[in-house]
Amino acid sequence: MGKIPVNFTGVRVTALLELYLRWLDSRDRHPILGDEWAQQAIALLDFDFDQFKPLGLGRFAVGVRSRMMDDWVRAFLGRTPGAVVLDIGCGFDSRVRRVDPGDGHHWYDVDFPDIVEIAGRLYSPRPGHTAVGASVTEPGWLDSIPRGRPAIVVADGLLNFLPEHDVRRILTQIVEHFPSGEICFNITSPVVRKQREKRPVALFTKFGIAEQWFPDDPRDVEGFHHRLRLAEVGSPGDASLLRRSPLHYRLLVALIGLVPAWRNAGWILRYRF
């Protein structure tokens, strides 16, 4: 089988970048996430992944946040019979395979139609999994998802790239669609926006990728809907998950933690509703 040509621009490129970073993590001696499916996906795509090398340290942050979200999903499914999982902006992530939900749980992956089509060629079908080709900023994207079941919603590496009014609308739609559940996502703070203004990420400039939402505080999201409540705040510098990462990276994280302005530059968040 020949390789699948990929010619993305804009935010779609982040699906490739995150896949590359999960692949780098899987090749480490002591991976944080250990995504065994990333290699097969990389091998099937006709794309110059070498251009992502300057961002290679990002594998640690991606490994931490994806591992944390995987654990939150497993815990939620373990205590919530019949729950569904909704992974929005899933890209080429193999999370449904890593978590491996049991019978009684249905998993929905949502992303742009062209990404969903390619992902369907990267991974074999599995029972209890449905891919939905839709943009979460367009009307009707939730129409095919059942309403009457509790849900855990994951937005790994998505919301930073949407304007606040879209984030607010998407989270409101989710909360009003399901009777109860949780929402997990990662986000960066305004200190990162200031850094980006001084030193733009060359790769983002090349592909026209724009980060747009930088909340001041995780509790700001509670104001988006009266049912949203902050349940947990994780950090990309989580010491327990980074304990076997290279010493140079742990030292870098420790140095960043000594600077008050950078201590809360990013969060991994879990909300209940």
Overall description:
The chain is an alpha/beta fold and 273 residues long. It has a single domain (4-272), classed as Vaccinia Virus protein VP39 (Rossmann fold). It is built from 11 helices and 9 strands. It has a 7-stranded mixed sheet, with helices on both faces. A two-stranded parallel ribbon has the order 1-2. The mean pLDDT is 96. Keywords: Methyltransferase, Transferase.
Just name the CATH architecture. Answer: 3-Layer(aba) Sandwich
Number of helices: 11
| DSSP strand content | 15-25%
Report the radius of gyration as a whole number of Å.
18 Å
End-to-end gap = 45 Å
Low-pLDDT ranges: none
Blueprint (SSEs and pairs):
Layout: E1 4-5, H1 13-27, H2 38-44, E2 45-46, H3 58-79, E3 84-88, H4 95-99, E4 106-111, H5 113-122, E5 129-133, E6 151-155, H6 164-177, E7 181-188, H7 190-198, H8 202-207, E8 229-234, H9 239-242, H10 247-257, H11 260-263, E9 266-272
Parallel strand pairs: 1-2, 3-4, 3-6, 4-5, 6-7
Antiparallel strand pairs: 7-9, 8-9
Helix pairs in contact: 1-2, 1-3
GO molecular function, one term: methyltransferase activity
GO biological process, one term: methylation
Pfam families: LCM (PF04072)
Keywords:
273 residues, alpha/beta, two-stranded parallel ribbon, 9 strands, SAM-dependent_MTases_sf, methyltransferase, methyltransferase activity, TcmP-like
